[in-house]
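R.M. (postdoc): so does anyone remember the format we settled on? I'll just put the structure tokens first.
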């Protein structure tokens, strides 16, 4: 089964990589799909994000990197033949945000979402925090 792990990955973090590794152990293939978020100004250009993810996942043969813009996640999943969406969650707030999206995706397409909680070492890591600490 193919899974899609979507995100802005701007920038990719060790937490993202942890979720990708764990998902790779569960599925035949995991597509890390870089999505553009209209509510976020991109810090890194898309080609840089793709290159970074490709480098970070080079040791994971069943993880591939792709991108999609301007369409629904479920449409992308259908196009690539993915049967499940993988999402990492760090906090109850993340889960509260993600559950309605997962329910909408299921209603629109029948595609389920698997939530993987952040590993203890990564629960506090976010792309925003990585950028903020890199500036200091």
């Amino acid at each position: 089964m193919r899974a899609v792990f979507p995100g802005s990955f701007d920038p990719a973090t060790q937490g993202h990589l942890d979720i990708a590794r764990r998902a790779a152990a569960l599925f035949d293939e995991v597509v890390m799909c870089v999505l553009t978020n209209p509510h976020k100004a991109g810090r890194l250009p898309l080609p840089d994000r793709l290159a970074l993810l490709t480098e970070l996942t080079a040791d994971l043969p069943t993880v591939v990197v792709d991108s999609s813009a301007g369409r629904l996640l479920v449409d992308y999943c259908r196009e690539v033949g993915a049967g499940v969406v993988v999402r990492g969650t760090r906090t109850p707030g993340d889960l509260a945000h993600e559950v309605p999206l997962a329910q909408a995706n299921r209603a629109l397409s029948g595609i389920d979402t698997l939530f993987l909680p952040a590993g203890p070492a990564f629960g506090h890591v976010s792309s925003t925090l990585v950028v903020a600490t890199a500036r200091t």
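R.M.: ...and that's the designed sequence above, right after the tokens. Also worth knowing: The mean pLDDT is 89. Residues 10 and 45 are 9 Å apart (CA to CA).
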